[in-house]
């Protein structure tokens, strides 16, 4: 299993062609839905019996809290310690969602790694750690709410970057800054990296402002804005509060959101590396 998800990139050395696909989920700020998208994709992967690893690089560790991994011995902070690297296999813990979803836990100590005093000495630590991962089909990195060092470390380790935004006044500027960060890391550290697209989250169909801002995003980034948008549904918060995947939450809203995540997973796992945007982009 899993071979269908392998990425092949011309010009990448052979040991790297068998890497597990890595997706960073990022945004300029907090509260827009990075963790929600990460968890939704992890649940979608598990529902398809794919082996998924969630790397929680957010010092707030919300994904870790919801996934409730069992017997955590090491965290992402240990992976970012260059002098005493921990093997990825030893650092992963099985989540409360079951065997297919494993977690590299986050913890508050990650915060000081976001602004290292001596520049960015460890930008390749996550990449180096994940290069040792074999028994997984997909890695999802939940980034902290900034584009600082931790997010750059995630991007240096990723094949694709999924940008999350809400349809608000600052969406356009925020998406542009996230795309600029992806560009900067690509040219400096990781030529494989591509933007996977922009998820517009917490969308309310009846809200004129949301429609206006979505149209603005489509006008600016047409091919990158992922269709469909992710609707606002109370089931999202409820399932997270209960620590279960949205795919197992029994409500119409949860089923609707789960269908959207299944579509996102398909887009992510079928997009050819290097092919650029994968959005259908047209009707909403
Ligand atoms: N589509 C949605 N519908 C309803 N609530 C949502 C949705 N997306 C996110 N939320 C809620 O908004 C809050 C912030 O989302 P979160 O994913 O934690 O953002 P981030 O990781 O970017 O900080 C959480 O309480 C989450 O449950
Ligand atoms: Mg979060």
UniProtKB/TrEMBL annotation:
InterPro entries: AAA_dom, DNA_Partitioning_ATPase, P-loop_NTPase. Pfam families: AAA_31. Residues 22-193 form the AAA domain. SUPFAM superfamilies: P-loop containing nucleoside triphosphate hydrolases (SSF52540). This is ParA family protein. It comes from Jiangella aurantiaca.
